[in-house]
From TrEMBL:
It comes from the Bacteria. This is Cytochrome c, class I. Its main location: membrane. The lineage of its organism: Bacteria, Pseudomonadati, Pseudomonadota, Betaproteobacteria, Burkholderiales. Residues 23-126, 168-277, 300-389 form the Cytochrome c domain. Heme c 1 binds at residues 37, 40-41.
Length: 409
């Protein structure tokens, strides 16, 4: 195996020279991280890039494939041309149509140099022999040939073209946000066939039950009121106190991807997002306009939710909900994305599944309570938390909790 792993490096060195070969691999690793490949293509942390992770969609689950250097079950036997075609056109090695759970609709913008650098790095990933599970899509969505029709409506193969009227920083940010980082794939709502609603681009969307935030400059629903340093901190640590904490899929994006971005690339993304069209959200309100600390004697309240909060949450977030380091305050949307909006999905999912967000500087960990509480109990707890600390319009019930519990199982 050692000789096989050395082959890509030897070949690169023969063509480009040792120094250039190492530069290509370093750049490829950076691009693979920035592109978020690890989070989707890793089901078992002990076997990175070996695939097998289910990607829930409204039509069933698509399993991310093995992209290690294994020649039989991974992409070790793929040619560069086959890799580039898959990334840019959504066509697999054997001519099969790929599903847009894989963001080829964004990767189509990537340059030749970046794609080949990514390919070179992935060729050095140790081979893991494991077949990808079969997708569980319902009929007719399990018919790959139908993707040709979907592409006619929703996909335009093209390369990124610099806008000479914009700064170098803006252009770099556009390349990262629209292409490599494929931010719109999660942060843009989709129509009933899974196509992106371009008029609401980056305006926020629901993905597998999680609410992905509004990335446009809207000052109430989006990031317009955020300072640059707050956005930089969020991208690098997943925590911007008073603004947002990365939860669910976004926590994984921070852990496996955005924390590794150079400061220059993070600033470029922010510069680009500052300039996109604002998308307002109906009935959105400034998060600090509601929510208040709880009374210290909440256990005396005639409220099942308050009692569940005292038993499960108060030891970290405080009886009043104001928290203490390292545990965030819940007042005024301290868990941002979970409170402060008229939806409860993120809060319920956090209670069900917990938080595990690890970066180079910190490790945010919250236990999952899904096995300890019934759906009705979680609904009671969520309704108490939103009424006390968040938007009192946000309510849920046991049926809604059950639906969220079932996603991805």
């Amino acid at each position: 195996m050692r000789a096989r792993l050395a082959c890509p490096i030897v070949l690169l060195a023969c063509v480009f020279g040792p120094a250039n070969a190492q530069t290509t691999l370093t750049q490829g690793e950076y691009l693979v991280r920035a592109g978020g490949c690890m989070s989707c293509h890793t089901a078992d942390p002990e076997r990175p890039f070996a695939g097998g992770r289910p990607i829930p969609t409204p039509f069933g689950s698509v399993f991310a494939p093995n992209i290690t250097s294994d020649r039989d079950t991974g992409i070790g036997a793929w040619t560069d041309a086959q890799f580039v075609r898959a990334m840019r056109e959504g066509i697999g090695r054997n001519g099969e149509r790929l599903y847009p759970a894989f963001p080829y609709t964004s990767y189509t913008l990537l340059s030749d140099a970046d794609l080949l650098a990514m390919r070179a790095y992935l060729a050095t990933v140790p081979p893991v022999r494991v077949a990808t599970p079969r997708n569980t899509l319902s009929f007719p969505f399990d018919q790959r040939w139908l993707m040709a029709l979907w592409n006619l409506v929703n996909f335009s193969p093209r390369r990124f073209v610099r806008d000479p009227s914009k700064s170098a920083e803006w252009n770099r940010g556009a390349y990262l946000v629209e292409g490599l980082g494929h931010c719109g794939e999660c942060h843009t709502p989709r129509d009933w066939l899974g196509g992106l609603k371009q008029r609401e681009r980056l305006g926020g969307a629901t993905i597998a039950g999680w609410q992905a935030g509004n990335l446009t400059p809207d000052r109430v629903a989006g990031i317009g009121a955020w300072r640059d340093d707050e956005l930089l901190r969020f991208l690098s640590t997943g925590a911007a106190p008073g603004r947002a904490y990365a939860l669910g899929p976004m926590a994984e994006v921070v852990s496996s991807s955005t924390q590794y971005l150079t400061p220059a690339d993070s600033r470029a993304m922010i510069a680009y997002l500052r300039a996109v069209s604002s998308v307002a959200v109906k009935d959105a309100r400034v998060r600090t306009s509601f929510g208040r600390p709880a009374r210290a004697d909440i256990t005396s309240l005639d409220s099942p939710g308050a009692r569940f909060y005292a038993a499960a949450c108060a030891s970290c977030h405080g009886v009043t909900g104001e928290g203490s380091k390292p545990f965030p305050s819940l007042v005024h949307d301290g868990v941002s994305g979970a409170l402060g909006t008229a939806t409860t999905g993120n809060l319920v999912l956090v209670i069900l599944r917990g938080v595990n967000r690890q970066t180079r500087d910190s490790h945010a960990l919250m236990p999952a309570f899904g096995t300890q509480f019934t759906d009705e109990q979680i609904a009671d707890l969520s309704n108490y938390v939103t009424a006390q600390f968040g938007d009192p319009r946000a309510k849920t019930d046991a049926k809604a909790v059950a639906r969220l519990r079932s996603i991805g199982q």
